[in-house]
């Protein structure tokens, strides 16, 4: 029975969307961390000994000696409520994000948002006198998720989501309240976490600014990920057949590319406006297909 459950989870992970894969990875690391903690405690070893190797430090020397923590910290949670809240936010806002952007852009923004949050956290703890003598370790996907939330809110500011006891609230107000709370909390007990949230928010805003100018901030990250992934895959032998006549096709110019992308974005904006006014069910089969294909790019 255990084997069948594991096989089913593996299948769901392989066939699932990038959004579900991000959630699965976070949950798997959480479970592994808690299990490791239990094993260490059985041998009277404090579980905190492993945290400096996976969480983001506030001390520059520790960061220099553990630079990988800038990536690992954004997948680390060891509190049930912490991971539950973060994964719910990631799932809800990730679905809305994918209405306008691709899965690759979600992964890139998740990573860049976490990196921005980690660096702002490190900089703040060593720049502002308030944090003198205070040392900390930070973990959690919050900065990455806030980047996705803010990017989504700037892309679809009037898109409404239903909140318990509050009713339908526009994304722009949710993002605004979140940022204000973080600004007011930078001197709280979890000040470092709130500073990281602001770093993620700034990255999410910058992503949209560049996107509106025809630039994809996540492209370099995704190219690096593709190279790493393909580097571990065996390359199939491909037989190349050359046509006898040279093709008359030519590369697309920058102007043509921008015009094509603008037309595609205008079409998606029109579909999203229709969703806001009449709901997803009002879309035609062709519009649903167009929205789905845009999310896969």
Briefly note the structural class of the backbone: mainly alpha
What is the strand tally?
Answer: 4
Number of domains: 2
CATH architectural arrangement of the largest domain: Up-down Bundle
**Amino-to-carboxy terminus distance:** 38 Å
Classified by CATH, the class of the largest domain is: Mainly Alpha
Shape descriptor reads globular
Helix content: 55-70%
Q: Which sequence of SSEs, written as H and E, runs from N to C? A: HHEHHHHEHEEHHHHH
- The poorly predicted ranges are none
Rg is: 22 Å
Q: Order of strands across the biggest sheet? A: 1-2
Major sheet characteristics: 2 strands, antiparallel
Q: Number of helical segments?
A: 12
Mean pLDDT across every amino acid position: 87
Per CATH, the superfamily of the largest domain is Rhomboid-like
Strand content: under 5%
**CATH domain fold name of the largest domain:** Rhomboid-like fold
Short description:
The protein is mostly helical and 297 residues long.
Structure description:
This protein folds into two domains: about 15-225, Rhomboid-like fold (Up-down Bundle); about 260-295, no CATH class. The strands form two sheets. The chain has a two-stranded antiparallel sheet with strand order 1-2. α5 (about 80-95) runs parallel beside α7 (about 140-155) and α6 packs across α7. The relative contact order is 0.10. A hairpin with a 3-residue loop joins β3 (about 160-165) and β4 (about 165-170). It is globular and about 60 Å long. The longest helix has 25 residues, at about 20-40. The protein is mainly alpha-helical and about 300 residues long. It is built from twelve helices and four strands, in the order ααβααααβαββααααα. One of its GO terms (cellular component) is membrane.
